[in-house]
Write a structure and sequence with these properties.
About 5% of the residues have low confidence. Strands 1-2-4-3 form a four-stranded antiparallel beta sheet, sandwiched between helices. Strands 5-6-8-7 form a four-stranded antiparallel beta sheet, with helices on both faces. The two termini are about 35 Å apart. It folds into two domains: about 130 residues, Gyrase A, domain 2 (2-Layer Sandwich); about 140 residues, 2-Layer Sandwich (Gyrase A, domain 2). Helix content is about 45%, strand content about 20%.
């Protein structure tokens, strides 16, 4: 059995903190050292945020050893290369994996990400959140050793969507082979929530009615909060139009599936617009694939 770590997410611990802070809208609290945030969120069992961090291995092992590993975490990605296997996955998968192969991988990963697989870590340089565009590139997982089908299977990208509606994110999370970190209406105060207005509302002359309805919901939400109701219960009043933000990580294979479905003319207008923005960014980085 032989295991070699080939590639892991650049500035991955910083990415984990940044994605996790979307949930609380707390980017202003980033100090450049993600250790306190990551240790806290993982200790509370909120490991979904570490799914944005990925790693790729060369593995030389018997099929039995590989099957033992895959039986513990079936969603790990693998492909054969002559006598070896390429195997990739996210941090949560590698933390949960069992067996001799998994132990060897975690030993190597402790050097790549001490916070996720070891004891403590070195401070990282902080990074400002992306700008105010609806879709922003945040991180690419592009092992130089991979091309073609291998890159599609093991490569990945993380995008940040901001100013999109809850109606859109409800559709988005139906793409199950992805990792998400979204602004939480349970933890975030939505008293001054923004909304996404469908173009048809103005086209049909219904904008005044729409705005009155939203203003009423805002006032009622404030009154519920002032009455002592927690945000996690007051949020039941909020509309699908409420503006949100979300980080999304997928392999290129699954981004291609997302684009095939959501760039289609039958897709709902907002997620179709977002899909075309994503497609344009992926084409700039990987014109041979997108």
């Amino acid at each position: 059995m032989n295991v070699e770590l080939i590639h892991f997410t650049p500035r991955g611990e910083e990415l984990v903190e940044w994605a996790g802070r979307i949930c609380y809208r707390s980017h202003h609290r980033m100090t450049g050292d993600p250790s306190k945030f990551i240790e806290g969120i993982v200790s509370r069992g909120h490991e979904s945020v570490i799914e944005h961090w990925r790693a790729l291995f060369f593995v030389r092992a018997t099929e039995g050893e590989l099957l033992d590993l895959l039986s513990s975490v079936p969603l790990l990605r693998f492909s054969r290369r002559e006598k070896d296997f390429l195997l990739s996955g996210n941090a949560r998968m590698f933390r949960q994996a069992r067996g001799p192969l998994a132990e060897g991988m975690r030993k190597l990963l402790s050097g790549a990400s001490p916070l996720l697989f070891g004891n403590g870590g070195n401070p990282l340089q902080s990074r400002e959140p992306p700008n105010e565009k609806i879709v922003n590139e945040w991180s690419y997982f592009l092992p130089a050793e991979l091309t073609g089908a291998e890159l599609s299977l093991h490569g990945a990208a993380t995008f940040y969507f901001k100013g999109v509606s809850r109606a859109l994110t409800h559709q988005l999370v139906r793409h199950r082979m992805a990792s998400y970190s979204q602004a939480s209406q349970r933890y975030c105060n939505e008293e001054n929530f923004e909304v996404v207005v469908p173009p048809s509302v103005e086209e049909k002359g219904a904008l005044p009615l729409f705005c009155r309805a939203i203003a009423g919901i805002r006032e009622n939400y404030r009154e519920l909060k002032e009455s002592g109701l927690k945000a996690e219960d007051a949020r039941y009043l909020l509309p699908n139009a409420t503006s949100s933000e979300i980080a999304v990580s997928m392999t290129f294979e699954h981004w291609a599936n997302f684009l095939a479905l959501r760039c289609d003319s039958h897709a709902q207008w907002e997620i179709r617009n977002v899909a075309h923005l994503v497609k344009g960014l992926l084409h700039e980085r990987l014109p041979q694939s997108f």
